[in-house]
Amino acid sequence: MNFLDRLHNEVLVGDGAIGTMFFAKGVSLEANVEHLNLVRPALVTELHREYLAAGSRVIETNTFGANYTKLAAIGLEKREREINLRGAQLAREAAGSDAFVAGSVGPLVRLRGDERELTAAEAEEIFRRQIGALAEGGVDLLLLETFTDLDQLKRAVAAARQTSLPVVANMAFLENGRIAGGFSVERVALELAAAGADVVGANCGAGPLEILGTIDRMARVVPLPLAAYPNSGFPEYHNGRYVYRTTPDYFADRALEMVAAGASLVGGCCGTTPEHVRQLAARLAGARPVSRQVTVPEFPAEAPRPATGDRVGFLARWGEEPVVTVELDPPRGFDCDKVVAGSRALKAAGADAINLAENPLARIRMGNIALGRLIQEEAGIEVIVHITCRDRNLLGLQSDLMGASLLGIRHILAVTGDPARIGEQAGATSVYDLNSFTLIKLLADLNAGVNALGNPLGRGAGFSIGCAFNPNGQRLEVQVARLEKKVANGARFVQTQPLYDIARLDEMLARTASLGVPILPGILPLVSERNCEFLHNEVPGIVIPEEIRQRMRGKDKESGIREGLAIAREFIAAARERVGGFYLIPPFGKYEIAVELVRYIKQR
């Protein structure tokens, strides 16, 4: 009898955690566990046999992270097929004809050094290669697990469907049974069924009780067999390791409830051991899948997003008069007098908004959200707060953004942020739960009145969402494609890296005209030859034409400032009829230079 036939007639017991057990057996926490298939195959076989002896009737290959994107990060990409093929063979040899072998496939990660996201076709091809090696190695089914991105899991299902193997698609849900983007358990289950999965389910997550609720909800909307692979509860950090406290007895008791709710394939994820499986097998001996009543739910329409043309605050005057935003640096200490005075002077000169960067170049400065509130109150000018993905995880970002909305901050510029390693704070690390694309999506969700899980917040955040754009790269089409995605995710205005070349400005405007969003070219006045050469040679995203560099030769102090202002004025005069505004970046916090340029723009 094949796997699916068995699953329709009896409850099958899976195995438990692989990484947890390898670490318990002395494998270094820094080691790549999939590489063990090649360098320590006896250890892999030993673990498979321990789970089989405990009662597993479905064991997973040690290949969860053996895809090209993860292997490339550690220099093992050329051994992708070998690792997967050997992983399948080891499990097949251990299982013999007594148990099914599930080819374990996990999610992809961003390729090292590549800022762009994989296309759907690229992702599907990477999955296809891994799955092909697993099929060649003799697996009985494919277990796609711990995915948090529904689109990526559907790509994996599409690749798996190119084989004749049964496909189990497990999602790793966040609290209350949602995933990033707000999709519910019910919608995920229906979309995976429509994509071609033979079994749908959930794994990882908070623990058995959370998975139990997820299975109960899935059972009501899809007739497919259901899989449940919960963690062993919440982990605790103890002596350098994460320790899971859920006892095998408790785990097995909850598994009985999962079967009663509709699960017919039950195993364990992080923190589970052969003892958990032993208790599980004892409780589920002779169990059969329960009958279920299925009703397809109706889903409410997605909350409307702001239209691309919606412009609020300083952007409301776009097209009627030149809009000017000016970047000021938050202080390194507690003294805010200079930045508040600069904001007042710029407001008097006619500036429309103040930009506040967040720890630029990963150098620590005062928090810009609180400072933005102070400037709006004391200087009476709107503030654009730059938010990086570097300094907070997903939880912290949502909390701080909700707080920013509460404080009256209405304009956010979403940026990925320079990595912490280039900064001055020894020991600081980068977070990057999100990137600029997904941060923009989060801001759009908050505007729609839901958090990243899709849970209602009571009202929308009211943000005007901005993004950065680099027009100076050698391949402008790549940068434009990135900008198109940012606008599609919810960006409603754009501020560029500093520009010094009118021809490049024209090319940028021609390539982005169809987007229909305000684009403010960056203007960074030069102050000396040394400053000019530093920007051109050492600062990513800035390119200064040779003729401008020649003009700054030998210029310093007052002569440098005069020449730099003259260059800026000439660019502004040439660009005035082409754009609706400018983003001024005064060097070294010299807001007086920006005041002069604001007056020049507004008086003309």
UniProtKB/TrEMBL annotation:
CDD domains: MTHFR. Keywords: FAD, Flavoprotein, Metal-binding, Methyltransferase, Oxidoreductase, Transferase, Zinc. It comes from the Bacteria. Its cofactor is Zn(2+); FAD. Pfam families: MTHFR, S-methyl_trans. Pathway: One-carbon metabolism; tetrahydrofolate interconversion. Residues 1-284 form the Hcy-binding domain. Zn(2+) binds at residues 204, 269-270. InterPro entries: FAD-linked_oxidoreductase-like, HCY_dom, HCY_dom_sf, Mehydrof_redctse-like, Met_Synthase/Corrinoid. This is Bifunctional homocysteine S-methyltransferase/methylenetetrahydrofolate reductase. It comes from Geotalea uraniireducens. The gene is metF-2.
